[in-house]
Amino acid sequence: MEAAGTEAAEAEAAEAETAEAEEAQESGGVPPGAGGRWGSVVGVGVAAPGPLDHVRGVLRHVTGVPQLAGFPLRDALARRLGLPVVVDKDTDAAALGLALRGKESLAYIHLGTGLGAGLVLDGRIHRGGRNGAGEFGHQVVQLDGPPCRCGRNGCLEALCMDAVRRGRTDEAARILGVGAANLVSLLGVDRVLLGGRTILSAPDAYVDGVAAQLRAVVGAVGAVGAAGAASNGAGGGRAVRVELAPEGTRTVADGAAQLVLAPLFGRAPGAPADGG
Ligand SMILES: [Zn+2]
C-alpha cells in the first residue's frame, strides 16, 4: 500500500500540477489506464504553496502566482486521476510528517523561493482558525521596511529573500533566526527544524546562524549541522534543538504522502480527515 506524495513547494511546481491536470483533461478527462494503472496507490497527497483551504483543497492567493487563486486543485486532480486527493500547504504537510514521529512541539521552517513554517504543538499540527498560523514569513519585523510581495512592508520573508539574493547567507540565517526566536519565545517549541532548497544549499550556515540568534534570545540551544554533529554545546535539559529536517529534500513530499496514509492508519494529528 502506498501513496504518491507530491511536493509542490514552489509556485512553479503548482503550475506543473495544473498543467498535468489539464493534460489529463485533454485526453478525455480520464488518465491513461485509470483504474488499473495505479495499482496499489490509494491516493495522492499534494503539498502546495499557501495560503490555501485545506478542507476543500482550493488554492488562495499564492504570492507570486495570483492566477491560481480559487483554483479547486483537489477536485480537479481527483476527477482527472480517479483517485482520492488531499491538498495541504507545503509546510503543514511537512509538519504532519514530522508530527507522526513524536508528541513534541516543533516548528518546521521552510526556505525555498519563499519562507514559511509549519507548527506542531504537542504532536498535532497547529493551523489556527483561519489556516494561517504558519504564515511565518509575513510577520513584520521592520517597520517601514522593504516592500514584500504580500503587499506589506518589512516582512521576515522580504528581508530574508533580499539577503539570499545578495548572496549574504550569514545575514539571511540571522534574519531567519530572529523569526525562529519569536516562535520559540511565543510558543515554547522544543525543536526548530530547517528545510527547503535554499537552506539545503548551505545547511551548516543556516543551522549555526539560526542557533546563534536563538541562543541570544532564549538561552540554551543545541544545534545539529549537516553532518549530524552537535555543535555549540547542547545546553541543559530544556535546550531548544535546531537541526535540519530529517529527510532533506523529501521532507515535504513525505509529508504529502502522509496526508493520505496517516488517516488510513488512524494517525492524523490535525489532518483534514479529523478537521471536517
Ligand atoms: Zn509579506
Question: Can you describe what's shown?
Answer:
It comes from Streptomyces bathyalis. This is ROK family protein. Residues 1-35 are annotated as: Disordered. Residues 9-25 have a biased composition (Acidic residues). The chain is of the alpha/beta class and 276 residues long. It folds into 2 domains: 2-89 and 251-271, Nucleotidyltransferase, domain 5, CATH 3.30.420; 102-245, Nucleotidyltransferase, domain 5, CATH 3.30.420.40. Helices cover 37% and strands 20% of the residues. It has helices at 11-26, 73-81, 90-99, 156-165, 169-187, 197-201, 203-218, 251-264, 272-275; strands spanning 2-7, 41-48, 52-53, 58-59, 85-89, 106-111, 115-121, 124-126, 191-195, 221-224, 230-231, 240-244. A hairpin with a 5-residue loop joins β10 and β11 (230-231). 46% of the residues are buried. Zinc ion binds at residues 138, 148, 150, 152, 155, 157-158. Zinc ion (ZN) binds at residues 138, 148, 150, 152, 155, 157-158.
